[in-house]
Every structure is written in structure tokens, then in C-alpha cells.
TrEMBL record:
<feature type="domain" description="Mannosylglycerate hydrolase MGH1-like glycoside hydrolase">
    <location>
        <begin position="26"/>
        <end position="395"/>
    </location>
</feature>
<comment type="similarity">
    <text>Belongs to the glycosyl hydrolase 63 family.</text>
</comment>
<keyword id="KW-0378">Hydrolase</keyword>
<dbReference type="Pfam" id="PF22422">
    <property type="entry name" value="MGH1-like_GH"/>
</dbReference>
<keyword id="KW-0326">Glycosidase</keyword>
<dbReference type="InterPro" id="IPR008928">
    <property type="entry name" value="6-hairpin_glycosidase_sf"/>
</dbReference>
<protein>
    <recommendedName>
        <fullName>Mannosylglycerate hydrolase MGH1-like glycoside hydrolase domain-containing protein</fullName>
    </recommendedName>
</protein>
<dbReference type="InterPro" id="IPR004888">
    <property type="entry name" value="Glycoside_hydrolase_63"/>
</dbReference>
<dbReference type="GO" id="GO:0004573">
    <property type="term" value="F:Glc3Man9GlcNAc2 oligosaccharide glucosidase activity"/>
</dbReference>
<dbReference type="InterPro" id="IPR012341">
    <property type="entry name" value="6hp_glycosidase-like_sf"/>
</dbReference>
<dbReference type="InterPro" id="IPR054491">
    <property type="entry name" value="MGH1-like_GH"/>
</dbReference>
<dbReference type="GO" id="GO:0009311">
    <property type="term" value="P:oligosaccharide metabolic process"/>
</dbReference>
<dbReference type="GO" id="GO:0006487">
    <property type="term" value="P:protein N-linked glycosylation"/>
</dbReference>
């Protein structure tokens, strides 16, 4: 694939200080999107990559959280729901997304060293992680809990069906996403109503309470452990050896809690904090602990990844849900399709665990699929057909990074 095409997508979605995921469906700045976007931009325009992350962290809350949306004031309020008026939090939402930012900051620095950039963002990243490891430890087991499916980044995952069943859907709102996407590709009206109810209840609690939905997600916590390792490397760069050691110890504690709490029968499952039960669904979030270099159960998890449930190496990308499940859907948002960011993360994980052939195969497939689908948001893992919006920023950005690798 020619890097020029991917670069054009990122230029087209650039607002001047940040990048929108897409011009139509997602017209603001999203938290984990920006981290993945910066990882690609570092090869094309390091200053833009730094600006992307600095803009996001300019909206960090006093308690350390990094909000999942930073709203663009030049975008009409009716362009996206729920918009800033719903959240009542100024220019941001009140939810969060997975903590991939330290890894992005480190990657940007490695591509174009800038000690001032690291020194500016290190305390912000540290506060972000402290919020997750402290205020979000709802279960008291050393794992961060999410309070809304949107916080997982995998909004419509089947793993949330059980915990969401307790939530009464809101009504009377207008969905803006269906203006830009096929209804068959998006969450159902009933699920969206539950999302809105949860968000409103959390807002009305002052963004403090754990309500009906409190879940320990293996994907979120694997990314948190990986982010602590990245933060340790940043501390090393800043000549802070004691801080680096603290971050490595923190990463080890999260990894230990993951295996003790969420591992069962060859897989990592989400845990419903309200009931204490593991959710039964095999989703791609359960594969993300493979990012951790000293994972004792890596061979068993790799066997699940390459087995019939995910077919890694025999399908396009990494399916977001169990291929053998009766409710697997290759087109609907996070209920089966493959996403480039999950494929990119698993590519890293495969290299870390001594699987270079499978990693190379996955890399080539991700690049081919991005090119043939016009950088689609996600794709059918069985056919490679594109779904969701096109010219999606993280698809283009991570293609750039894979080409550079």
C-alpha cells in the first residue's frame, strides 16, 4: 500500500490541533483514537503527533481522568449525540477510554526525541494512571472498573449484555449516528437507550458513583498494565529511576490481578463487579493480555487465539467476538467485525511472544484490508468487506505505522 493514501486521510481529518476519527460520524476528538492516530502521525509529522496528544491532555480533569471526547466548538451541536449540552462538563464528556496514551507518548518520542514533550506529559500521564488505579478500583482487587460500555472502547461488545440487562433504556432522544452509518452495522435502539441511561445517571451522580454497570474488563486492564510499562520507560528517559521502578511494580500488580481475577479455562473474561461473576462471552478484549511480556498463561491464550473461536491467521484481522458463538455478527459494531487497532495491538503481542510468522501474516492482512476498503472503520473477518465509516483515522494511522515497521 502507498503511504500517500493513508497520509491523505489523516490530513483530511486534521482540524489544526487534533484529528477527528471521521468527518461525519465522529466530528470531535476521541481519547484512544488520538493515541493511535499519534502513533501513525509520528512517521509523517512528529509535531502534529505531539500536538494531538497535548491537545487531548489539555482537557484532563482535576481528578486525573482523561475524558473520552473533547468537543470541537466549531462543530454544530446537532452533529453528534450526546453532545456537550448532555454531559454538562464544559468542553468534554465525563467518561473515559482505555489508557493507551503513555504508549503513544513514548512512541512519538522514540520517533522524534523531545525531552520537553516527555517532561510535560509525564506528570499528566501519572495522574491519569493514579486515577484509574485508585478511584476506579471498584472491586478492591487492583483492577480498574469501567462504568459504561463506551469506556471500554468496544462499545457494543456482547460481554456487556449481562450487566446492561439491569439498565432501563432511555427514550426520547435522537440518534445522530444512524445519519452516517447503516443501522445493521450499529448498536440496536434498545442498547443505545441503555447507553444513554447509564451516561445520564453517571452525570447526575457528579461523575463519582458506580451505578448499575461496573465491570472489570480484561482489555482495559491489559492496556493499563502495558501503559505502566511505557510510563516506566518514559521515567527512565527523564532520569527518574525510582519512579520507573514504581511503574514496573504497578504493571506487575495489575498483571497478577488480571490472572488471579479474570482468567478461567484458557481465556480472560470480563467480571461483573455487581455480581462477582465472569461474563461468559469470548471477546477480543480477552486476547489483549498477550501484550504483557511475562504473561505465564500466554501459550494457552495463544492457542485460543489461533483456535476456532478467533481463527487468527485464517481470517481477516482479529474478530471482535467468538466466531463459533450463535450470535456472532460479522457486520455489527464490536459483535464480530475486525478492527485495525485490535489487529495492531495483537501484532505487537505476537512479536513479543515469539510468533513472527503469524505477526507478519497479520500485518500484511491489515494493510491489504485497509487499502481495499478505503480505510474502513472495521471489516467482516470472513470476507474482508468494509463496514462502518470510511477514511477512518486510526485505520489510516496504524497502516502508516505498520508500513514503517
Amino acid at each position: 500500500m502507498d503511504v500517500t493514501r493513508a497520509a491523505a486521510v489523516l490530513s483530511g481529518n486534521w482540524l489544526g490541533s487534533s484529528t477527528v476519527p471521521s468527518r461525519g460520524l465522529y466530528p470531535h476528538q476521541w481519547s484512544w483514537d488520538s493515541a493511535f492516530i499519534a502513533i501513525g502521525l509520528r512517521h509523517l509529522a512528529p509535531e502534529r503527533a505531539r500536538r494531538e496528544l497535548l491537545t487531548l491532555f489539555s482537557a484532563q480533569w482535576r481528578d486525573g481522568r482523561v475524558p473520552h471526547i473533547l468537543f470541537n466548538p466549531d462543530t454544530p451541536p446537532e452533529a453528534y449525540f450526546p453532545g456537550p449540552g448532555f454531559w454538562r462538563a464544559g468542553r468534554t464528556s465525563g467518561l473515559i477510554q482505555p489508557p493507551v496514551h503513555a504508549r503513544a507518548v513514548l512512541a512519538v518520542h522514540e520517533a522524534a526525541p523531545d525531552r520537553e514533550f516527555l517532561a510535560t506529559l509525564y506528570p499528566k500521564l501519572r495522574a491519569w494512571h493514579e486515577y484509574l488505579l485508585g478511584a476506579r478500583d471498584a472491586g478492591g482487587r487492583g483492577l480498574a472498573a469501567i462504568v459504561h460500555p463506551w469506556e471500554s472502547g468496544m462499545d457494543n461488545s456482547p460481554a456487556w449484555d449481562g450487566p446492561l440487562a439491569r439498565v432501563t433504556p432511555s427514550t426520547g432522544f435522537i440518534r445522530r449516528d444512524l445519519t452516517h452509518g447503516e443501522a445493521a452495522d450499529r448498536p440496536s435502539d434498545e442498547d443505545y437507550g441503555r447507553y444513554v441511561r447509564l451516561a445520564a445517571d453517571y452525570r447526575d451522580s457528579g461523575y463519582r458513583d458506580f451505578g448499575e454497570f461496573a465491570v472489570e474488563d480484561p482489555g482495559f486492564n491489559a492496556l493499563l498494565a502495558d501503559a505502566e510499562l511505557a510510563l516506566a520507560a518514559i521515567a527512565d528517559e527523564l532520569a527518574l529511576p525510582a519512579a520507573a521502578a514504581t511503574h514496573r511494580e504497578s504493571a506487575a500488580r495489575v498483571a497478577k490481578a488480571l490472572q488471579e481475577t479474570l482468567w478461567d479455562n484458557g481465556f480472560f473474561f470480563a467480571r461483573d463487579v455487581r455480581t462477582g461473576a465472569l461474563t461468559p462471552q469470548h471477546t477480543c478484549a480477552g486476547l489483549l493480555p498477550l501484550l504483557l511480556p511475562d504473561l505465564a498463561v500466554a501459550p494457552a491464550l495463544l492457542a485460543t487465539a489461533t483456535g476456532p473461536r478467533f481463527g487468527l491467521g485464517r481470517v481477516h484481522g482479529v474478530p471482535s467476538y467468538d466466531l463459533t458463538a450463535p450470535d456472532f455478527d460479522p457486520a455489527r459494531y464490536w459483535r464480530g467485525p475486525s478492527w485495525t487497532n485490535i489487529g495492531w495491538l495483537l501484532h505487537r503481542a505476537l512479536l513479543a511472544h515469539g510468533e513472527p510468522v503469524l505477526a507478519t501474516q497479520l500485518r500484511e492482512d491489515l494493510l491489504t484490508t485497509a487499502a481495499t476498503t478505503d480505510f474502513a472503520e472495521y471489516c467482516d473477518p470472513l470476507t474482508g468487506a468494509g463496514h462502518g465509516t470510511r477514511e477512518f483515522s486510526w485505520t489510516a494511522a496504524l497502516a502508516v505505522d505498520l508500513l514503517a515497521s
